[in-house]
TrEMBL record:
Keyword Lipid biosynthesis: no
Keywords linked to the UniProt accession: Hydrolase, Lipid degradation, Lipid metabolism
Gene Ontology MF: a single term: 1-alkyl-2-acetylglycerophosphocholine esterase activity
Biological processes annotated in GO: lipid catabolic process
UniProt KW Transport keyword: no
Segments forming domain Serine aminopeptidase S33: 73-291
Name of the protein in question: Peptidase S9 family protein
Amino acid sequence: MLATVGAAAAPVGLAAVRWQDPARAAWGVDGPRPVAALLWYPAADGAAEQDWQVPPFEPLPVAVGAAPAPGRRPLVLLSHGTGGSAASLGWLARELAAAGYLVAALNHHGNTAAEPEARLEGFVAWWERPLDLRVAIDRLLADPDWGPRIDAGRIGVAGFSLGGLTALASAGAQPRWAAWSAACAAAPATPGCALPPEAVARWTWADVDALRRSEGFAPSLARADAELHDARVRAVFAIAPAMAAALAHAPLAVPVEIVVGEADDQVDLADLRAWDQVPSVSVERLPGVTHYAFLMGCGLRGRLFAAAICRDPPGVDRARLHADTAARARRFFDRELAPR
């Protein structure tokens, strides 16, 4: 039973899990691809929450390592944006967990601030991300501790920016490498065709072209048009999905809700209009909201030294935006992941 409005929310627990995918190689080192996640969940009564800090973001109250509250719960997987981390969407993960969900927030290998080194492969090979979600679902359902706590018929995905594309891909909005390449060759100034801000300080398009031709990248490139739809996913909530030009606007088998800011300069807002015509997809546009407003709120040091991701334009209240968006996501998942 999910928490209801007006009821006292359970304390939220936090645990780290780490798996490997032997079918795929890690970037730059020998061995299988790591698949890591933070699990947010309703903790048992009496669990003590303390501030959990991941600079430059504001702390969140969680009970690290606490025992989970009893019961089987719907599962929501969460995919971060380019160069981000599971922590960067902690505002959404915590609110869903407080409402009764088990939330598995991924750290996508090679493309996450949670690792000591970013890899160009991780920025380019977006098709590896939905495969991470698939592995996470497999491992969680098979886990002797977490598996019995999950209602396998009630699984959703949410994601921000490139994580939004990841979420849509898991619902059957198949990204196509060739289609994206052709679209960007015709209109290179389109948002989603340029290197993201997180990559331009490290690499150029010449580096990307060299990577595409490299022998070591070939196994991943061969998966670029692999089928990414996961039939276990029943609903998708996409926040400011990037690289929409890579997606086919085909009817989807599950309901999708998209939330995007009208002042977002990293999302192809014109392309998103095509989603208005797709059955089972709804798009909500928020006036004045920019791309990074959907990241965790920042402390003073973050606002001073990480202004690009921490400062919002006048009139945008990030805390209110997060509260409203988390409530919207909860209503969406409460409806679409309701017991059948």
